[in-house]
Specification:
6-stranded mixed sheet, Metallo-beta-lactamase, Chain A, 7 helices, alpha/beta
Protein backbone atom coordinates (compact mmCIF):
# COMPACT_ATOMS: atom_id res chain seq x y z
CA UNK A 1 0.00 0.00 0.00
CA UNK A 2 1.33 3.41 -0.98
CA UNK A 3 0.18 6.41 1.07
CA UNK A 4 1.21 9.63 -0.63
CA UNK A 5 0.92 12.74 1.56
CA UNK A 6 0.42 16.31 0.36
CA UNK A 7 0.57 19.35 2.63
CA UNK A 8 -1.97 21.80 1.21
CA UNK A 9 -3.82 24.99 1.95
CA UNK A 10 -3.24 27.92 4.26
CA UNK A 11 -3.34 25.84 7.45
CA UNK A 12 -1.11 23.42 6.05
CA UNK A 13 -3.24 20.24 6.08
CA UNK A 14 -2.25 16.73 5.05
CA UNK A 15 -4.37 15.07 2.42
CA UNK A 16 -3.57 11.60 1.12
CA UNK A 17 -3.75 9.56 -2.05
CA UNK A 18 -3.82 5.84 -1.31
CA UNK A 19 -3.15 3.15 -3.91
CA UNK A 20 -1.44 -0.16 -4.47
CA UNK A 21 1.67 -0.60 -6.57
CA UNK A 22 0.85 -1.39 -10.21
CA UNK A 23 -2.88 -0.75 -9.74
CA UNK A 24 -4.80 2.25 -11.02
CA UNK A 25 -7.56 2.68 -8.43
CA UNK A 26 -6.87 5.20 -5.69
CA UNK A 27 -8.67 6.70 -2.71
CA UNK A 28 -8.54 10.40 -1.91
CA UNK A 29 -8.54 11.31 1.77
CA UNK A 30 -9.45 14.90 2.71
CA UNK A 31 -8.66 16.43 -0.73
CA UNK A 32 -9.34 20.02 0.20
CA UNK A 33 -6.94 22.52 -1.33
CA UNK A 34 -4.21 23.02 -3.95
CA UNK A 35 -6.14 20.59 -6.13
CA UNK A 36 -3.88 21.05 -9.14
CA UNK A 37 -1.06 19.35 -7.21
CA UNK A 38 -3.26 16.33 -6.53
CA UNK A 39 -4.53 16.22 -10.10
CA UNK A 40 -1.01 16.36 -11.52
CA UNK A 41 0.08 13.47 -9.32
CA UNK A 42 -2.97 11.44 -10.35
CA UNK A 43 -2.25 12.05 -14.03
CA UNK A 44 1.51 11.48 -13.81
CA UNK A 45 0.99 8.14 -12.05
CA UNK A 46 -1.86 7.01 -14.30
CA UNK A 47 -4.23 6.68 -11.33
CA UNK A 48 -8.01 6.54 -11.36
CA UNK A 49 -9.72 7.98 -8.24
CA UNK A 50 -12.62 5.80 -7.09
CA UNK A 51 -13.83 7.61 -3.95
CA UNK A 52 -13.27 10.44 -1.49
CA UNK A 53 -13.27 9.54 2.19
CA UNK A 54 -13.16 12.41 4.65
CA UNK A 55 -12.04 12.24 8.26
CA UNK A 56 -14.26 15.21 9.18
CA UNK A 57 -15.70 18.45 7.80
CA UNK A 58 -13.68 21.37 9.15
CA UNK A 59 -12.91 23.90 6.44
CA UNK A 60 -9.24 22.98 6.03
CA UNK A 61 -10.25 19.40 5.20
CA UNK A 62 -13.14 20.18 2.85
CA UNK A 63 -12.71 23.69 1.41
CA UNK A 64 -12.65 22.81 -2.32
CA UNK A 65 -13.52 19.11 -2.15
CA UNK A 66 -16.63 19.67 -4.27
CA UNK A 67 -14.45 20.61 -7.25
CA UNK A 68 -12.44 17.38 -7.26
CA UNK A 69 -15.60 15.37 -6.59
CA UNK A 70 -17.19 16.86 -9.70
CA UNK A 71 -14.05 16.55 -11.85
CA UNK A 72 -13.77 12.79 -11.29
CA UNK A 73 -17.49 12.14 -10.52
CA UNK A 74 -16.64 10.51 -7.21
CA UNK A 75 -18.70 9.13 -4.35
CA UNK A 76 -18.09 11.02 -1.12
CA UNK A 77 -18.01 9.35 2.32
CA UNK A 78 -18.57 11.28 5.57
CA UNK A 79 -19.96 10.55 9.02
CA UNK A 80 -23.52 11.78 9.52
CA UNK A 81 -22.58 13.81 12.59
CA UNK A 82 -20.35 15.99 10.38
CA UNK A 83 -23.19 17.14 8.12
CA UNK A 84 -23.97 20.30 10.18
CA UNK A 85 -20.34 21.37 9.70
CA UNK A 86 -20.51 20.49 6.01
CA UNK A 87 -23.69 22.49 5.49
CA UNK A 88 -22.05 25.50 7.13
CA UNK A 89 -18.93 25.42 4.98
CA UNK A 90 -19.45 28.98 3.73
CA UNK A 91 -19.91 30.18 7.32
CA UNK A 92 -16.67 28.48 8.27
CA UNK A 93 -15.01 30.30 5.38
CA UNK A 94 -16.42 33.65 6.46
CA UNK A 95 -15.07 33.09 9.97
CA UNK A 96 -11.54 32.72 8.60
CA UNK A 97 -11.93 35.22 5.75
CA UNK A 98 -11.58 32.48 3.13
CA UNK A 99 -13.52 31.59 0.01
CA UNK A 100 -14.83 28.06 -0.50
CA UNK A 101 -16.56 25.91 -3.05
CA UNK A 102 -20.08 24.64 -2.41
CA UNK A 103 -20.16 21.68 -0.02
CA UNK A 104 -19.55 18.29 -1.66
CA UNK A 105 -22.49 15.93 -2.07
CA UNK A 106 -22.51 13.17 0.54
CA UNK A 107 -23.26 9.91 -1.25
CA UNK A 108 -22.33 7.46 1.54
CA UNK A 109 -22.50 7.81 5.32
CA UNK A 110 -19.49 6.51 7.22
CA UNK A 111 -20.11 4.42 10.32
CA UNK A 112 -17.68 2.52 12.50
CA UNK A 113 -17.04 -0.88 11.00
CA UNK A 114 -14.42 -3.62 11.07
CA UNK A 115 -14.31 -3.62 7.27
CA UNK A 116 -15.33 -1.15 4.61
CA UNK A 117 -14.82 -2.29 1.03
CA UNK A 118 -14.35 0.29 -1.74
CA UNK A 119 -13.20 -1.29 -5.00
CA UNK A 120 -10.01 -3.24 -4.11
CA UNK A 121 -9.53 -1.37 -0.81
CA UNK A 122 -10.55 -2.94 2.49
CA UNK A 123 -10.03 -0.99 5.70
CA UNK A 124 -11.35 -0.48 9.22
CA UNK A 125 -13.34 2.66 10.04
CA UNK A 126 -12.96 3.96 13.61
CA UNK A 127 -15.20 6.65 15.12
CA UNK A 128 -13.07 8.84 17.41
CA UNK A 129 -15.18 11.85 18.48
CA UNK A 130 -13.95 14.85 20.45
CA UNK A 131 -12.20 17.06 17.91
CA UNK A 132 -15.49 17.06 16.04
CA UNK A 133 -18.54 14.88 16.66
CA UNK A 134 -18.07 12.61 13.66
CA UNK A 135 -14.27 12.41 13.37
CA UNK A 136 -13.26 9.15 11.72
CA UNK A 137 -9.94 7.33 11.43
CA UNK A 138 -9.13 4.77 8.73
CA UNK A 139 -6.93 1.74 9.42
CA UNK A 140 -5.27 0.11 6.40
CA UNK A 141 -3.36 -2.82 7.87
CA UNK A 142 -0.70 -1.12 10.02
CA UNK A 143 -1.33 2.36 8.61
CA UNK A 144 -3.75 4.71 10.36
CA UNK A 145 -5.14 7.83 8.70
CA UNK A 146 -5.94 9.83 11.84
CA UNK A 147 -7.34 13.16 10.63
CA UNK A 148 -7.16 15.77 13.41
CA UNK A 149 -7.60 13.26 16.24
CA UNK A 150 -3.99 12.33 17.03
CA UNK A 151 -0.79 14.15 16.05
CA UNK A 152 2.92 13.64 16.56
CA UNK A 153 3.22 14.80 20.18
CA UNK A 154 -0.24 16.36 20.36
CA UNK A 155 -3.99 15.87 19.87
CA UNK A 156 -6.73 17.68 17.98
CA UNK A 157 -8.00 21.00 19.29
CA UNK A 158 -11.38 20.93 21.05
CA UNK A 159 -12.34 24.62 21.10
CA UNK A 160 -14.26 24.44 17.80
CA UNK A 161 -17.92 23.53 17.18
CA UNK A 162 -18.97 20.61 19.41
CA UNK A 163 -15.39 19.87 20.46
CA UNK A 164 -15.04 17.96 23.72
CA UNK A 165 -11.62 17.54 25.34
CA UNK A 166 -12.51 14.78 27.76
CA UNK A 167 -14.34 12.81 25.06
CA UNK A 168 -11.35 13.12 22.74
CA UNK A 169 -8.91 11.83 25.35
CA UNK A 170 -11.21 8.93 26.23
CA UNK A 171 -11.78 8.12 22.55
CA UNK A 172 -8.07 8.08 21.72
CA UNK A 173 -7.21 5.87 24.68
CA UNK A 174 -10.07 3.45 23.99
CA UNK A 175 -9.98 3.34 20.19
CA UNK A 176 -6.39 4.14 19.13
CA UNK A 177 -3.93 3.39 21.94
CA UNK A 178 -5.23 -0.19 21.95
CA UNK A 179 -3.75 -0.66 18.47
CA UNK A 180 -0.29 -2.28 18.10
CA UNK A 181 2.79 -0.13 18.75
CA UNK A 182 3.99 -0.47 15.15
CA UNK A 183 0.90 1.12 13.62
CA UNK A 184 2.04 4.21 11.68
CA UNK A 185 -0.11 7.27 12.27
CA UNK A 186 -0.68 9.66 9.36
CA UNK A 187 -2.21 12.80 10.91
CA UNK A 188 -4.14 15.69 9.41
CA UNK A 189 -1.28 18.09 10.17
CA UNK A 190 2.43 17.60 10.70
CA UNK A 191 4.72 14.56 10.45
CA UNK A 192 3.77 10.93 10.88
CA UNK A 193 4.34 9.02 14.10
CA UNK A 194 3.51 5.64 15.63
CA UNK A 195 1.01 4.44 18.19
CA UNK A 196 3.87 3.16 20.35
CA UNK A 197 5.61 6.51 20.40
CA UNK A 198 2.44 8.43 21.25
CA UNK A 199 1.48 6.00 23.99
CA UNK A 200 4.79 6.65 25.74
CA UNK A 201 5.64 10.28 24.94
CA UNK A 202 2.50 12.22 24.03
CA UNK A 203 2.04 14.69 26.93
CA UNK A 204 -1.75 14.65 26.57
CA UNK A 205 -1.97 10.87 26.90
CA UNK A 206 0.64 9.77 29.42
Amino acid sequence: MIIKAFSVGPFPMNCYIIFEQNKKDCLLVDPSDDLQILEEYITENNLEPCAIINTHAHIDHIRFTRLIQEKYRLPFYLNEEEIPLLENLQSQGAMFGMDTAAPPEVTHLLTETEELQIKNFSFKVIHVPGHSPGSMCFLFGNDLIAGDVLFNGSIGRTDLYMGNYQLLIESIKKKLLTLPDNVVVYPGHGPSTTIGKERITNPFLV
